[in-house]
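At this stage, I wrote out one protein, both as residues and as discrete backbone shape codes, and that material follows here.
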Amino acid sequence: MLIKETKNDLLNTVMITSSVNGEGKTLTAVNLAVTLSREIDHSTLLIDADFRNPMVHEYLGIEYEKGLSDYLGRDIDISDVLIKTGIGNMVFIPAGGMVKNPVELLSSKKMETLIKDLKQWYGDGYIIIDTPPVLSCTEAFAMGSFVDGVIFVVKEGRARTKTIEDALNMMEGFNILGVVFNDVSISNLDGDYSYNYYRYKKKEKE
């Protein structure tokens, strides 16, 4: 569904986020990138833009010396932070060293230019970006204006329905491609989460 919707509209930069921590957004980003690169054979770039709690490299079992924060804060070439994963056609940009100003770096002109350049380089593929939760940090909003679409991750029982609604309302104006429901029991597949997302989308169209 993601491939059909994004390719038809010439969209290829997708941000993965959630309302709060612990929803499974990072694992969703990794699984999506692996699926696109290995099973569907697309060139895929996976970026860890969660400077506060970088986890993508742990899921991939990759050690690194430099990453996105180093590229944005120092005078180094982007090729210095690109890592071939050995998983299909997937390349990885790790978060990099810890920084005191993650919002400033991710909202910078250098970051915006990087996304535009990567969008061209991966014109026949996808760029998947893992970002911090919407309600925990403001980095997701900094990134939201640079990407083509957003996938919002919800884990059953993790965040209250009101919290999810607040996060979705705060992302008004972003192109939300859809919601990934994690650990949802069969009895809740048509329950509160689905209903409230439907209500949000209906409001968006009015």
